[in-house]
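Notes continue from the previous slide.

Worked example: a multi-chain complex. Inputs as given:
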Amino acid sequence: MIKEEFKLDNQLCFRLYTASRLLTQAYHPLLSAHGLTYPQYLVLLVLWEKDAQPVNDIARRLFLETNTVTPLLQRMENSGLLTRSKGTKDARQMIVTLTAKGRNLQKKLADVPATVGNTVICEHVTPETAPVLFTMLDEMIDKLSRQLND
Amino acid sequence: MIKEEFKLDNQLCFRLYTASRLLTQAYHPLLSAHGLTYPQYLVLLVLWEKDAQPVNDIARRLFLETNTVTPLLQRMENSGLLTRSKGTKDARQMIVTLTAKGRNLQKKLADVPATVGNTVICEHVTPETAPVLFTMLDEMIDKLSRQLND
DNA sequence: TATATTTGCATCGTAAACGATATAATTAAC
DNA sequence: GTTAATTATATCGTTTACGATGCAAATATA
């Protein structure tokens, strides 16, 4: 008999991995209609909150490495969503700025959050219980990101 | 001002995506010491529970497509963890079977679940509260996997 | 000020993910 | 019993992720 800890049904990581992938897939039809991928959508969320950020700030906000974000931004630049230009204060930085096309996508994607939100609602995950889930995930993210940066 | 629904801090999917990635990174040193990746570890979990399964069963168990699992299994075959052989009953199937090396890894990875388990424990995520989190994630996975298969 | 270290970004290689498509084997329909 | 539809894998192309490494600019140190 297999040890309890090795059963797939007892794995938190597998659940997170699966839920993340499936929920990302739920975004797919909504985003691909506008030529976007989910990580590209995340970059837009970051820049809609605060435009004209260096690569490093975007990467840190998303808990990603710059070697993941750089090519991602290059593709978004190629599709006309943003521009990348050398920083004036610090010449090492690349400042990422939304184009009009990138800004306007916010209006076109206005119903994405609600649409996806509706697809995840179930018995124990509702607008009322979401804060509990958010707290648990936030604490884990906080602890893990600390530990991985040592 | 950005709409509330677009704020990164209000996104469930981003939390799941981040928690999943960071927790997977926590597995990395433990698994790479044995030449494994996290998805490969998941395949081992599946096969340790039940050996000699067709590709399709493994893929369904992991909520993955066969075009993801096939190359994954090919790499694991190349590293000597398993063998793939045509099914006798149904010649279309590829039956995946662990080698001695693949089976023995279970002993060598014996402390992985506990080690990773300790790294995620935080105020609101403990062995006592885990079932709540499991239920929420399971319901979401169940609902999403249904919706995506229509 | 010259040198060493750090920082910000980029490039490269490998391994997932996944949509689209192809191919062979099985099953269904006629 | 052919032909059509389905099923089980596999292949291909594109986009992430991420470790390792490189390079130029900025900062710290001698």
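Summary box: Residues 37-40, 64-65, 67-68, 71-72, 75, 90-93 of chain A lie near DNA strand D (CB under 10 Å from a C1'). The CA atoms of residues 39 and 110 of chain A lie 17 Å apart.
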